[in-house]
Amino acid sequence: MSRLFASTFFRMLKKFVFWILLICMFAYGVYSASNAASEARAGFALDGCVFEFAPFMGLVAAIFISLFVGSEYSDGTIRNKLVVGHSRMRIYLANLIVCSIACMLISLAYVAGIIMVGSSKDGELLTETSIITMCLICSIFVSVAFTSIMTMLAMLNTNKAGNVVVSMILALVLLVSSSYIYQRLGEPEMYDNYVSVNEVGIPTQVEQLPNPLYIDGTPRTVLEVVNDLLPSGQAMQLADAFDASGITNKNIENAPYRWMGYSMLIIVLTSGCGIILFKRKEIR
Amino acid sequence: MDYVLKAEALTKIYGHHRALDNFSMHIPKGAIYGLVGKNGAGKTTLLRLICGLQEATSGDYTLYGVSSRKHEILNARKQMGAVIETPAIYLDMSATGNLKEQYRILGIRSFDTIPQLLKMVGLENTGRKKAKNFSLGMRQRLGIAIALVGNPQFLVLDEPINGLDPQGIIEMRQLLLNLNQQYGITILVSSHILDELSRLATHYGFIDNGKMIKEISASDLENSFRKSVRIEVTDGKALAAVLEQAGQPYKMLSPNVAEVYNRVNISRLTAALEKHQCEVLSIQEREENLENYYVDLIGGISHE
After folding, report:
1. Which residues of B touch A71 (CB under 8 A)?
2. pTM confidence score
3. Nearest residue of A to residue B46 by CA position?
């Protein structure tokens, strides 16, 4: 296993797409923090931009893993590992671990960009460090969950080009659907209906009406679980939980433990299925 | 006899197609085993099974005495290297980079032997050139170099001279002979180029429609080749009469040309023909080769 890990890890370090994504994420971190700094006069809060990278990790994982693992099939080099007696489970796990490390490093490159600008321009965190740290660990789990899904796809699909397309479509579908679910769950239960206004347009009589877009009961519970379960849903919530004034969603303080559990579930399920199917896969 | 690989009743079914059907095979230690068969005969399927890329539908094979059904087969595979169909190389890496990858996969920490390996396959001057810019022949050589990492005792090569130029073919032949004779590596090689295979192989296996038709050693094969004499004369009827009288087995290839499947005393034959006023125009000694043998064997089977 350590031999496969070493070989895969060194190959990752030589992969152009890894360094491109790493630099892009670092640049995005620098841009986000600089943007936040330019809007404040003296000293600024970094909280709002720390987790902006999370929703993009699905796409990042899709691009990197489909190209990195896909080349094992397109170049046929997976055969070199099987021929010399490496088990399929070890080959799968070596790829999963190295891709997870790659995606973690890419995530941390964004955070490094934030820290670099933050420390040079007197940026500060308004939220408690313990909460930020937990959310950061949670975002790393989100990256690994995305990695696990994309690794499963890449290990089971021998067509590299096809897998790039499939992975990116899946990442986009996850992002859009989670964004929609998060938006619907954020709808208020009641909304203000202005019954009368005075001559200058100020409402004088306001009544509360039930919002038809509000989802209630079992559907709400289901959507909340789905939103927490999907890594893209967790990423959306993380990105939206903080702004320039610090934490905006107090409920998030307890959420990371639940999310990490859900992420672990996704990782175990997708990797388990991936390994079982990969063991049965006929390689040409 | 020690066998590196033995296959018994190996069957592989893709959908409704039996790629291998009750296939049996025996590769002695130290042999260069030539696997001969037409396209779609099941050669590559067999090599994929042996290399662990696919599972057999039924049947079993043993590698160094270890059954393919046992987990220990993974350890047995550590003694083998293979190039199946296209060479398995990272196109965005140099020859050295590719070899380093394989060294890491096998857990070999020192890269000291890489220059030696590159020289062995004639790629010592490729420098930092990436494999994607290599010719087909260079890729083939690199694939073989990768298969040789870790000093395997059993080498599986699928059409190794595909894409090689004439000089490359000669070098590849010398390399394989050298590996076999100097290092004692057992080689299983499939090839369509029978003439080339006949210069290498010590044993042959003839495969058709997923079945092993015949296994034979090169020496036995040579002994079984029929020798003949082709005689061209001015009067074919006279020649036929003389051969009949002498009790020689023969076949008329054209009105004035006959092939005699026996030793012929030329002086007596010419003297006998002179009595019929028949002149001998040419005499050629001929020997059957692998190609004739293959055509007779597979052609005979397919027309049964």
Report:
1. 90-92
2. 0.84
3. A284
